[in-house]
Amino acid sequence: MPRLLEIQRAVGRSIIGGDDAFAARYVLADGLPPEARLGIYRNNFTGTLTAALKLCYPAVHRLVGAEFFEGAARIFISAEPPRRADLDANGEGFPEFLAGFPPAGAPSYLAGVARLEWAVNRALHAPDMEPLDLARLGAVAAADRDRIAFLPHPSVALVEVDHPVDAIWRAVLAQDDNAMAAIDLDAGPVRLLVERRATGVEVTRLEEPAWRFAAALCASRLLQTAIDTAPEVDAAALLAEHLAAGRFIGFELVDGPITSGLHS
Amino acid sequence: MSASAAPISAERGPVPREAGIGLRFPHHQAVLDERPRVAWLEVHTENYLGGGTPLAYLEAIRRDYPIALHCVGFSLGSAEGLDLGHLDRVHRTVERIGPALVSEHLSWSIAEGRYLADLLPLPMTEEALDIVCRHVDQTQTVLKRRILVENPSTYLRWRHSTIPEWEFLAAVAHRTGCGILCDVNNIYVSACNHGWDPSTYLAALPPAAIGELHLAGHNVRQLEGGRTLRIDDHGSRVIPRSGNSTPRRWRDLARFPP
Asked: How far apart are CA B17 and CA B40, in angstroms?
């Protein structure tokens, strides 16, 4: 008699990889071939996860159409089956998958739009966390300020893409053909800040130096390193804006203990 | 929305003994605006494990309605053990919402760390019974509350099963103290698919353990050779049973205390 673990691994191989050889031996046929019974679960797996990917990547879906999307999703899902049961948390690898997917008629900016949509999805579903208490920051001794490294709010993402994907994304979701036609696809890269505010998810275009500064802060680089990364910006003003917007949930003093709200 | 019938637990909980309904995202705002006259609401827990708008809506709705959290992702029957990260995320949502009921399925969904996105059938063996009971115990310990375990719709059975599903489910309730979420649609679907007698199934469930009933519809698929297979979708209309089976089914359900 097979152990439960063997059965479950075999069903996993059947559902994800289409290999029924082991699992089918233990399925009662009862008027329907075991492979057909396993196929019901495989179809549910693909259908459920494709629907979840569509919810996460609505602009990609509209750009390429249902047939292309479902074909790409099927290959992606079996290559990178989900690790989590909360389906909003899966699909992170889809933009990179699309970037390497044979571009049969797919626009060059498709993977870039997907990267923005993943950041938006992540911002939508990030856990609620209290922003950094500024009094804690004020209490840091002057001698320790160089050692500050901020911890970004989990909804915040800094995305740099080769095409104006923010404009494309908005036009596609609004189904605004005039706005789409007005976009200069060769306008060069855009640098975006994606975050969840009280009113919803916001996508903001930043100038390159300000984006570089924000990206260094959100990568938890030392404050001084972030300032050195972008010497041309008014670091004090930008930092004040990030703090006021609640983009950090804490900070650590590097080589020192974590003093963030993460553990409070 | 799918319909759920009255919770009829012998242990009086904060859920009224009246019909509740399943709540989906598109209806969040309408519930807050219109305050429909419904005794309680049930949601899929996995849609509320992050923060932001969904959880904020659920917290607002929670002020006026008892909430049942219905889970699909514990994979109580996984031989490789529970996903502790998932258990922790559900625990946080349970603490924040303070639900009247928490339920999960008699099934498994995770193999080698991969989520198979369905409620897969277990071999009905002593080994699987031990594993499910261990995981129900573990879940109830972490959540610090009794959970309900629901019978799933199934489309296959394992050759080496030795225990009827209804006895297996009753044994899980007996050994762990968990309640049973009796899904009448799922019993009907599985009974049709496997040639079981739904009355036998219902008769085997201990009335005192029943904490909730589910009513929903399903989809009937025609197969080659004239066979049909019933697939649970919980989206179709509740199917009226034909012939004289309906009164008999309700008589079976009447065993459960009001």
From this structure: 9
Show me where the domains of chain B are located: 3-253
How far from A211 is each of A118, A149, A154, A177, A219, CA to CA, in Å? Answer: 19, 17, 17, 29, 12
Give the CATH superfamily of B3-253.
Divalent-metal-dependent TIM barrel enzymes (3.20.20.150)
CATH architecture of the region A129-264? Alpha-Beta Complex (3.90)
ipTM of the complex: 0.89
The boundaries of every CATH 3.90.930 domain in chain A are 129-264
- Chain A residue numbers with beta carbons less than 8 Å from the beta carbon of B50 are 86, 88-89, 124-127
In angstroms, the separation between the Cα of residue A262 and the nearest Cα of chain B is 15
Task: Tell me the chain A residues in contact with residue B117 when contact means C-beta distances shorter than 8 Å.
Answer: 44-45, 48-49, 82, 87
Q: What confidence score (pLDDT) does residue B5 get?
A: 42
Question: B78 and A83 in contact by Cβ < 8 A?
Answer: no
Q: What is the pTM of this model?
A: 0.89
**pLDDT tens by residue, A30-46:** 889 999 999 999 999 99
Residues 6+ apart with CB under 8 A from B234: B2, B22, B185, B216, B217, B218
Q: Which of B46, B131, B159 sits opposite A26 (nearest CB)?
A: B159
